[in-house]
Amino acid sequence: MSTGFSAEIFVQKLAKLNIAQQSIETLSHWCIFHHRCCQEVVDIWNKDFHSAPQERKISLLYLANDIMQNSKKDGMRYIHEFLKVIAAALDDLFTNGDDFGRNVVKRLVRETYSCFYYLIL
User: Fold this and answer.
1) In this structure, are residues 72 and 79 in contact, taking their beta carbons and an 8 Å threshold?
2) pLDDT category, 84, cuts 50, 70, 90?
3) Measuring CA to CA, which residue among 112, 89, 111 is closest to residue 101?
4) Which of 11, 21, 23, 99 gets the highest tally of CB atoms within 10 A of its CB?
C-alpha cells in the first residue's frame, strides 16, 4: 500500500467530509501528513470550496482552519498556501451565506485568522 499523496484520493476524501469534528480532524491529519504536497492540497480545496453549496463551505473552512492550526509545528507552508485563498473564501461565504455562515466567518476571523494577520502585512 502506497503512502504517497494522490490528488484523486484527496478528492474522494473531500467528498466524504462533513461538519463532524472527527471528520474534519481525520482529514486534517491526513493533509498534514502529506504536507509536502500542500500547494496541491490547497489548490484542490480551493476549487472544491468555490463549487460547493454553503453547508459544505462551512465544513471546508473548518478543515482549512484545522490544517493551519495543527500544521504550525511542521512549518508555515500550509499557512502560506491557505493565506493565498482564504480571504476570498471567507468573503464568498460572508457575502453569499446565510446568518449561520456569516457567524462562522466572523468567529473564524476574530478567533483564528487574526493571529495570521502579521503574515500578510
Assistant:
1) yes
2) very high
3) 89
4) 23
98 is a domain residue:
yes
Question: How many distinct structural domains can be found in the chain?
Answer: 1
Residue 13 lies in a domain: no
- pLDDT per position as a tens digit, 21-52: 999 999 999 999 999 999 999 999 999 999 99
C-alpha cell of residue 102: 456569516
102 domain residue, yes or no: yes
In the chain, where does DSSP find H-type helix? 7-16, 21-33, 38-51, 54-70, 77-83, 86-96, 99-111
Answer yes or no: are the C-beta atoms of 60 and 17 closer than 8 Å: yes
Secondary structure class of 6 (helix, strand, coil)? coil
CA distance 27 to 10: 9
Report yes or no on 5 lying in a domain: no
